[in-house]
Amino acid sequence: MHPLRGGPIISYEPATPEHEGRSAEVSRNIFFDDPLFEGFALRPLIIDGCPLGEISATTSLIEEGDRDGWYRQWTATAERVAGYADESVHAGHTISARDAYLRASSYYRAAYKPLYGLPVDPRLVEAFDKETDTFQKAAALMTPPVEPVEIPYEGTTLPGYFCQADDTGRPRPTLIVTNGYDSTINELYLDSAAAVLPRGYNLLLYDGPGQGRVLIKQGLVMRPDWENVVKPVVDYALTRPDVDPEKIAIMGISLGGYLAPRAASGEHRLAACIADPGLWDMIEAAKARFSALPKEVLEKFPDVGPEVLGPIEEHIRATPALRWNIIQRGFWVQGVDSLSEYLHVAEDYSLKEVVGQTRCPTLLTWAESDPLSWNATRIYEELSCPKELVRFYDAEGAGDHCEAKARPLFHQRAFDWLDETLAAQVPEVDKASGR
User: Fold this and answer.
1) What pLDDT does residue 427 have?
2) Torsion angle of alpha carbons 109, 250, 401, 303, nearest 10°?
3) Can you list the residues of the chain whose pLDDT is less than 50?
4) Active site residues
5) So what's the pLDDT on residue 426?
6) Helix, strand, coil: what percent of the chain each, to 5?
7) Fewest beta carbons less than 10 Å away: which of 114, 147, 323, 363?
8) Residue 367, Cα to own-chain centre: how many angstroms?
9) Strand ranges inside 95-146, DSSP E
10) Who's near 290: CB < 8 A, 6+ residues apart?
């Protein structure tokens, strides 16, 4: 059993100490030499569980760096697979139809990844709509069906999915999952549902400002005070009789590793928090990206002049992976149009002033080859609530960002902790009565 209060840092260390701090070995690419295209192609394979054959057949038709060809070929694959699903529906084969619709949804999502950014490409919107449509066709064929929901939020709504652990209607522990910069609730389902639902948890997925439909269709950019985003999500959960109000937890993935702890610092109806990875603030993450700069320059971030930022922005724009991550995706999500603005906005994304307000038990992850997670120890040190830090290593295949290539290992450690944490909590009514 993991201790609940002041829990130790959980290392799961390899047998030899030299593994700690070791850089990941460079592995041979599977699909593309371009690391950006390679990452996009791996995503439906390692996150969504799509078959290697369909992915390889698609990528073999795409030239390195050809964004138009990428969109065209992934869309063609998505439409073909959606056609398979339609055929199975008409023949009454619901399981085959469900699985094919899920794959089609993944391929539509893959199609628009290189197009991310402003001005919004109409092809991106069209592919996103088809991603959502095919996912919801699959959702209707699930048992129990996945329920699309609209969560009231500041004069509009946030899209979500409520996934029941079973069809009994009994109150169940419920896990709210928060994504990061460019995922969607459709992808979150594929990452989480198979691990969460069999454990007896309901699953509540949502897109907030700067994410999924809320960014692409509603035009709302991200905000740092995520407790004000999660409050209406918890409000919604508490309207449902199939949710145990004493056992609502939150998990954040990627940038969600900042958003979820930030939410937990101000939303005290949450019973537990998981941050994968623990992300102290965005400025430290930016410093990790630009670690080649002189130390005295990094110490001044974000207050550095154009003589410094100019060459950096030129380098970013000339490097496809950096350009996509920061200029295309980052500027759009944050609602800025310059690197200086981006860095100054990033300053607001920090747990420094709020981390001490967190009350619920919190689990943080740290991954050996993910610089964005290396300040998870800072969060751990500053938290005064029950806490644990779980380390993942390259030697066990889990040292990359969000343990992407070993998600079952993350699920095992995180959800075992959650099981034990929620089981150990005493309802408020029992605390008051002393029984």
Assistant:
1) 56
2) 100
3) 1-26, 429-435
4) 254
5) 58
6) 50, 15, 35
7) 147
8) 15
9) none
10) 298, 301, 312
Just give the CATH number of 51-141: 1.20.1440.110
Residue 433: predicted pLDDT? 36
CA angle 141, 105, 129 (to 5 degrees): 105
Tokens 């969504």, residue located:
48
**How many helices and strands in the chain, by DSSP H and E?**
18, 9
| Domain locations along the chain | 1-14+145-281+349-426, 51-141
CATH of the structural domain 1-14+145-281+349-426, one choice from 3.40.50.1820, 3.30.70.2120, 3.20.20.70, 3.40.50.620:
3.40.50.1820
Q: How many residues in total does the chain contain?
A: 435
Coil vs helix vs strand at 229: helix
Distance CA(100)–CA(25), nearest Å, equals 35
- The structure tokens listed for 272 are 């537990």
